[in-house]
Amino acid sequence: MEIRPRAKAKGADALLVFYTKRAEPKSSIKDELEKVSKKGIEKLFQLGFKAQPKDAEILLLEKAPWKLAVITGLGKEDKLELENFRKALASGIKKIQNYSVKSLEIEVPQINKFEEKEILRAIAETLWFATYKYKNYKTNSKTALQKIWLLTQAKKANEIINKANIIGKEHSKIRDLINTPGSDLGPEEFSQLAKESAKELGLKLKIYNEKELARMGYNGILRVGQGSKRPPRLIVLEWQGAGRSQKPICLVGKGVTFDSGGISLKRSDGMEKMKYDMAGAGAAFGTICTCARLGIKKNITAVIPLVENMPSGSAQRPGDIVKMADGTTVEVISTDAEGRMILADALYHSQKFNPRQIIDLATLTGSATIALGRYAIALLGNNEKLLSALCQAGERSGERCWILPLWEDYNELVRSEVADIRNVGRGREAGTIVGAVFLKRFIKNDIAWAHLDIASCAWSDENHPYLGKGATGVGLRLLVRYLEDFAF
Ligand code: BES
Ligand code: ZN
Ligand code: ZN
Fold first, then answer.
1. Could you give the CA distance from residue 13 to residue 323 in angstroms, rounded to a whole number?
2. Upstream peptide bond of 25 is cis (omega within 30 degrees of 0)
3. Is residue 309 within 6 Å of ligand 1 at its C-beta?
4. How far apart are CA 121 and CA 160, in angstroms?
5. Which tens digits make up the pLDDT trace of 75-115?
């Protein structure tokens, strides 16, 4: 699929236009469309079309530069948000995909409330999100839409669209990665893909194998990984976009390529989805690759622990006590609370890079869904400025975050009788916070740290308005936007 700007309409298989309410906002293309459709739009409105977000209708055209037009609704203008463009566009695309449409022109509307470049970026990115489908195991699949032109006079349209194309393609890449079955993506396979990308993009890469991990005392990763036949890995990718003296921003991503729960086995319904327990790793990996492609002028280090959490004769047991790299002893109450064990080592390792900030992403707790539903990422951390910058990047990118507290009182919930801490809290109390309290213990010297619990948003069971089903790639858009515009 190719997306490019075009200053003037030249015709294509289809045309897509946005409407907020009747005949608004006006434009010459809409006038032309009214002419060639013999007032088709006016008729649509008369017949009850309300231009609500997600409303999309097809008009068949004759003797026109397009075979059909799709009219999409943005809702009321005073309540308009960028997210409405994403939803409207996706509904329009869904309609178009019912027909054999290979080329498409989209009118980029001018709406005072938003900078044109933001609308342009939202539209271009969403074209990738909304047309994505996981096809790797379908024996015959076809891609219909091939060429898309965004009709715009915006200055730098080319640059903005190229950027969106980079983000969109990387987004699709990590969705493929996250959707890949556990059988075909274990720690070793993930590392191999990192190797290929590092080579292509000029990233520094180090892959630690199980022997090196043992030497480094990374027992969190080793103990979780010991139940699987596939050995664990820790990978570190570095992008140097600024001078050597600039401290890096570290991204740490949970990479459990399959989470069966281990000896604390999960119930079987829905277990098949636990291939997405490496969505944090996918997002960290995708973000550093995207930043390299965009040439972002910041130093970024991605630290990614990779394990498969399986039950077996060699698996760790509930009741085991693990000595972590920093000396902390952890009582394993549940082998299903494995994410925090591997992240503890990765957070410890990330501090060797003397970072200015550490941001981790993890499908850490089912409780995140209980707290926020699928509508926001749970955000916790020790630095208000960092949390607020991430929230702003979230609003802008379409991946909202919501801050939960991390008061000292919660430390009580991870106290153990026999070790320094335990890996789960008490009952169902504050599950998402307990996960963050555990991780906080491994952040030293008050380094600015943020934890994104993406368990609620990383997978879509019902159709997401513009991402569809399966892996959502959450975190990538947020972090790329953060690193572009909000990082300090
Ligand atoms: N990978 C899961 C969390 C998860 C659950 C992600 C559902 C996405 C959807 C994690 O490793 C886990 O099992 N967490 C436990 C923690 C508990 C044992 C303290 C949970 O959420 O139940
Ligand atoms: Zn688990
Ligand atoms: Zn997990």
1. 63
2. yes
3. no
4. 6
5. 998 889 999 999 999 999 999 999 999 999 999 998 989 99
CB 230 within 8 A of CB 314: no
Distance CA 51, CA 360 (A): 40
Does the beta carbon of 338 sit less than 6 angstroms from any atom of ligand 1? yes
Structure tokens at 438: 């555990």
Question: Could you give the C-alpha distances from 148 to 32, 60, 85, 94, 106, in angstroms and in order?
Answer: 20, 19, 16, 15, 7
- Selecting among 30, 275, 340, 396, the annotated active-site residue is 340
Which tokens in the block code for residue 133?
């489908």
* Cα 150 to Cα 8: distance, rounded to the nearest angstrom: 9
Q: pTM to 2 decimals?
A: 0.97
| pLDDT tens for each residue of 422-472 | 999 999 999 999 999 999 999 998 999 999 999 999 999 999 999 999 999
**Averaged pLDDT, 158-162:** 98
Task: Return the ligand number nearest the Cα of 369.
Answer: 1
pLDDT of residue 22: 62
| Whether 340 is catalytic | yes
**Is the shortest distance between the CB of 318 and ligand 1 below 6 Å?**
no
Helix (H, G, I), strand (E, B) or coil at 122: helix
Residues near ion ligand 2 (Cβ under 5 Å):
259, 336, 338
Write the single-letter amino acid at 398.
G
377-381 vs 321-323, strand pairing mode: unpaired
Rg of the chain in Å (alpha carbons)? 24
Element (DSSP H or E) covering residue 120: helix 116-131
Instruction: Give the model's confidence band at 313: pLDDT under 50 very low, under 70 low, under 90 confident, else very high.
Output: very high
Ligand closest to the CA atom of residue 336: 2
pLDDT digits (tens, 9 = 90+) for 392-420: 999 999 999 999 999 999 999 999 999 99
In whole angstroms, give the CA distance from residue 163 to residue 406.
36
Residue in the block written with tokens 């990738």: 128
pLDDT tier at 141 (50, 70, 90 boundaries)? confident
Q: How would residue 23 be classed by pLDDT, with cut points 50, 70 and 90?
A: low
Q: What angle do CA 295, 298, 301 make, to 5 degrees?
A: 100
Ligand 2 mean position, distance from CA 95 (Å): 39
Q: Report residue 88 as tokens.
A: 């409207």
- Please report the pLDDT score of residue 74 as a whole number: 94
Distance separating alpha carbons of residues 463 and 469, to the nearest angstrom: 5
CA distance 451 to 340: 11
Task: Characterise 85 by phi-psi region: left (phi > 0), alpha (psi -120 to 50), beta (else).
Answer: alpha
Q: CA dihedral in degrees (50, 51, 52, 53; nearest 10)?
A: 160
CA of 339 to the centre of ligand 1 (A): 8
What separation in Å is there between the alpha carbon of 457 and the centre of ligand 1?
A: 13
Q: Which amino acid is at 56?
A: A
Q: What is the dihedral of CA 70, 160, 199, 180, to 10 degrees?
A: -30
